[in-house]
Design a protein that fits this description.
Number of helices: 8
Number of strands: 0
Distance between the termini: 128 Å
Radius of gyration: 30 Å
Strand content: under 5%
Length: about 170
C-alpha cells in the first residue's frame, strides 16, 4: 500500500500593497495644484526634483503609482466634502469660464479666450508648440557706456526743450 505524504503549504504572508506617495511627490503635486508655478517642471524643481527629472513630468511624476494614489486620495476627500469629483469640478469651472462676464454683466472676451485656449490644450486641439512666442525686445539703456548715455540724455533734453518751445 502506497503511503501518501501531504506537504503543508506555508502560510501566505500578508502582502501589503499600500502604495503611498513620497514627501517629494506630495510637495510636487501640491505645487502643481496650487497654480503658483508657470510649469509643472518649475513646480517639481521647487519641490526638490532635479532639473533632469523635471524635464519629463509625465514620466517622472504623474505616471508614478504613489502620485496616482495621492491624486485619487485628494479626489476621494474632495468628493466626500463637496459631493462632486475633482474632474467634474474642473470641467464645471472651465465651462463657466467659457461663458465669463465682467462686473457689468457684459461678455468678458479675454477671460473666455483664456479658458478656450486652456480647454483646447486639454483636449489636444491646440498644443503649446503651436502658440507663437510673444517676445518683447527692450533696449537696456544702462548696458551702454557712460559716454553714450550722456550723449543720449543731452539729445533727449534738447528734443524736449524744442517741443516745449513749440507749444
Amino acid at each position: 500500500m502506497k503511503r501518501r505524504v501531504y506537504i503543508k503549504k506555508p502560510k501566505a504572508h500578508a502582502v501589503t500593497t499600500d502604495i503611498q506617495a513620497t514627501d517629494l511627490q506630495i510637495k510636487a503635486v501640491d505645487n502643481v495644484l496650487s497654480g503658483k508655478f508657470d510649469s509643472t517642471a518649475a513646480a517639481m524643481r521647487d519641490a526638490g526634483y532635479s532639473k533632469t527629472s523635471a524635464i519629463n513630468p509625465w514620466l517622472n511624476l504623474f505616471e508614478r503609482k504613489g502620485v496616482q494614489w495621492y491624486l485619487e486620495k485628494i479626489n476621494r476627500e474632495y468628493k466626500q466634502g463637496t459631493g462632486i469629483t475633482l474632474p467634474d469640478k474642473v470641467m464645471k469651472v472651465y465651462t463657466e469660464g467659457l461663458d465669463a462676464k465682467d462686473k457689468e454683466g457684459l461678455t468678458d472676451h479675454n477671460t473666455r479666450k483664456k479658458f478656450a485656449d486652456e480647454f483646447s490644450k486639454f483636449f489636444g486641439w491646440k498644443t503649446e508648440q503651436q502658440e507663437l512666442p510673444h517676445q518683447m525686445n527692450q533696449y537696456n539703456f544702462f548696458s551702454t557706456n557712460k559716454d553714450k548715455q550722456g550723449e543720449f540724455n543731452k539729445n533727449l533734453k534738447r528734443f524736449l526743450r524744442s517741443r516745449q518751445a513749440s507749444k
